[in-house]
Each structure stands twice: as C-alpha cells, then as structure tokens.
Amino acid sequence: MTRESLLVGGGKGRGKSGDIFLTATSPQGDQRLRLLIEVKGSWEANVRSRMNTQLESEYMKETGITHAIYLVFWFDRSDWDRSDYRYARSTFGTAGAAQDFFDDQARKLSEGGRQIRAVVLDGSLN
Question: Whole-structure pTM over 0.85, yes or no?
Fold first, then answer.
C-alpha cells in the first residue's frame, strides 16, 4: 500500500498521484490486484465532478486500473464555523444525499470492466 503514489507522468512536474494505491497478489498467486482510492472532502471545489474527470478519465483510463473507490468525507455544516470558507462549499445537506449522488455517478462510470464504488464517511461531531 502506498499513499500519494505517482500513477502517471513524472519528469517535469509532479505527474498524477492517487491518494491511496493498494496492490496485492491473488490467493492463487496468478493475478496482481490493484485498487485506487481517491479521497476528497465534501467542501472541495470540484468534488461533484472529480470522480469522472480525475479518477475515471485520468487515473483509471491512463493506468489500466479497473477498481477504484471514491471516498468523500462529509461533515455536518451545523458543526462548522460559518466564517470558514469550507462551510459555503459543502453543499450536500446530509451524508445520505452525498452518498446517493456519488453512488449514481459511480454506477454510470462503472462500465467496460471498470468498477468504481462511492463511499461517504460521516465525520460529524454528533
């Protein structure tokens, strides 16, 4: 397992790095299994589109990785300081609403042998 593993590129510039990259050998020893986990906060500017534009279109297509998880941390806005810039950016009213949104997107992007799963973790204080 590696964190911020360089997936594509290098040379000039940083290239493209996945957040968590897991590799293992199948129990039979005949396959190399790879899983990419892309981690986001619910307040990130492009959180609604990055499963498509970053995870699927860049990382998975360019590397041949077929299994991925789009992991979003969601926090209840009522726990936030309203002056924090992230308060306004976190637009999902509930963790369930975020999960439904990302499940639908993952289902649409899981085709041609690719499998993407969405996971929303509720990080609320309650």
Answer: no
Pairing of strands 2-8, 115-122: unpaired
Is residue 93 within 8 Å of residue 61, measured between CB atoms?
A: no
On whether the CB atoms of residues 15 and 46 are closer than 8 A, the answer is: no
Per residue in 29-87, pLDDT tens?
Answer: 888 889 999 999 999 999 999 999 999 999 998 888 999 999 999 999 888 889 988 88
Neighbours of 99 (CB within 10 A): 18
- Number of domains composing the chain: 1
Q: In whole angstroms, how large is the CA radius of gyration of the chain?
A: 16
Length of the chain: 126
d(C-alpha 76, C-alpha 57), whole Å: 30
Domain of residue 51 covers 2-7+14-122
* Partners of 18 in beta bridges: 5
**Which one, of 90, 14, 87, 73, lies nearest residue 38 by Cα?**
73
In the sheet that holds 115-122, the strands lie side by side as 2-8, 16-25, 32-41, 67-74, 115-122
